[in-house]
């Protein structure tokens, strides 16, 4: 099976449909409703595809989420299912629920997929991360001091530390990290949500972002790793205990090494064939948001692929006309 050729277009459609559903709720101030609409639309679209999929990263464990929960089977449920490609799927139907609810930039709909066993089944706990682009592959060490990592990142980009822009989630847990970055001389861009889209931006030139540091979600870490594998970026990560029961949770999921283990891209996304797809919900540094017009909508997406033979990144500007009326199409 060539996962890339068979399913990439289908997965692009999945994230686009979820993004449109979420975008219809933008600015209404109800993040749970926004997330619900995206989840429902994504699941419905996934179940139209001829694949035998398993959700390995989703909306939580079965008792916490009504759909797209961990280990849920997705794909077309018919008598041919045993012949369909077996695929592990990681999803975040709406990354940045608060961003969508408030109409703030950088909300996206995301999916990554690989052959069975190709994505780490990470627990829904926190993860400490450093994410960089291709120029700094092999230069980061999550156990090293912040200043040392910043020096190495600057060296890889042929810049001074003062030239760097580091994205950090604006959380109380990052007070010391922010202090260390500022003390080293680098600049900081604080974000309220959306460290997944930030990680992708760090791996692409022209975004004005050079690295992402700090503690975010472990599920988002796996999705980011899938994108890094397609983009030749790099990241290191460690699971981070934040609340009672986290240690028992990772043991229950069979994850070895505890909170001391350092994960790299290959640990988080070991698959040989990987697809990563994302569609903008609200406009941001990476993708434009869904733009509705009379008779249809316009969507901006990225689809990345990684195989042993090649890696591709395609930005797609999709115009969908769902009205029988004559609708003029604008170039911009």
TrEMBL record:
- What processes does the entry annotate via GO biological process terms? fructose 1,6-bisphosphate metabolic process; gluconeogenesis; glycerol metabolic process
Name recorded for this polypeptide: Fructose-1,6-bisphosphatase
- Residues bound to Mn(2+) 1 are 35, 59
Q: Note the Gene3D superfamilies from the entry.
A: 3.40.190.90, Fructose-1,6-Bisphosphatase, subunit A, domain 1
Tell me the organism: Candidatus Fischerbacteria bacterium RBG_13_37_8
Q: Which reaction does it catalyse?
A: beta-D-fructose 1,6-bisphosphate + H2O = beta-D-fructose 6-phosphate + phosphate
Please report a single Pfam family linked to this protein. Answer: FBPase_glpX
Whether Metal-binding counts among this entry's keywords is: yes
Residues crossing the lipid bilayer are none
Family to which this protein belongs: Belongs to the FBPase class 2 family.
Single GO molecular-function term? Answer: fructose 1,6-bisphosphate 1-phosphatase activity
Any one cellular-component term (Gene Ontology): cytosol
InterPro entries referenced in this protein's UniProt entry, alphabetically: FBPase_class-2/SBPase (IPR004464)
Q: What keywords are annotated for this sequence in UniProt?
A: Carbohydrate metabolism, Hydrolase, Manganese, Metal-binding
Listed binding positions for Mn(2+) 2 are: 92, 95, 220
Known NCBIfam families for this protein?
glpX (TIGR00330)
Cofactors required: Mn(2+)
């Amino acid at each position: 099976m060539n996962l890339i050729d068979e399913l990439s277009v289908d997965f692009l459609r999945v994230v686009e449909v979820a993004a449109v559903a979420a975008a219809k709720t933008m600015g209404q101030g109800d993040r749970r409703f926004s997330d619900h609409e995206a989840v429902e639309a994504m699941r419905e679209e996934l179940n139209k595809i001829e694949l035998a999929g398993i959700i390995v990263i989703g909306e939580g464990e079965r008792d916490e989420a009504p759909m797209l929960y961990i280990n849920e089977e997705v794909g077309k449920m018919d008598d041919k299912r045993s012949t369909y490609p077996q695929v592990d799927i990681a999803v975040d139907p709406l990354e940045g629920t608060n961003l969508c609810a408030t109409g703030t930039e950088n909300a996206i709909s995301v999916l990554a997929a690989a052959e069975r066993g190709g994505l780490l089944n990470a627990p829904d706990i926190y993860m400490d991360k450093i994410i960089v682009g291709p120029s700094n592959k092999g230069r980061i060490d999550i156990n090293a001091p912040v200043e040392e990592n910043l020096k190495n990142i600057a060296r890889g980009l042929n810049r001074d530390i003062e030239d760097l822009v580091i994205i950090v989630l604006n959380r109380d847990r990052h007070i010391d990290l922010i202090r260390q970055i500022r003390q080293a001389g680098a600049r900081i861009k604080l974000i309220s949500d959306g460290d997944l889209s930030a990680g992708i931006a760090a791996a692409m030139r022209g975004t004005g972002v050079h690295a992402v540091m700090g503690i975010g979600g472990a599920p988002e870490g796996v999705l980011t790793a899938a994108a890094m594998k397609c983009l030749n970026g790099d990241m290191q990560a460690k699971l981070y205990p934040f609340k009672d029961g986290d240690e028992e949770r990772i043991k229950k999921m069979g994850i070895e090494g505890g909170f001391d283990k350092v994960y790299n891209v290959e640990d988080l996304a070991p698959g040989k064939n990987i697809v990563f797809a994302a569609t903008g919900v609200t406009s941001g540094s990476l993708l434009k948001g869904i733009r509705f017009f009379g008779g249809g909508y316009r969507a901006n997406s990225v689809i990345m692929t990684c195989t042993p033979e090649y890696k591709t990144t395609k930005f797609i500007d999709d115009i969908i006309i769902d009205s029988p009326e004559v609708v003029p199409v604008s170039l911009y």
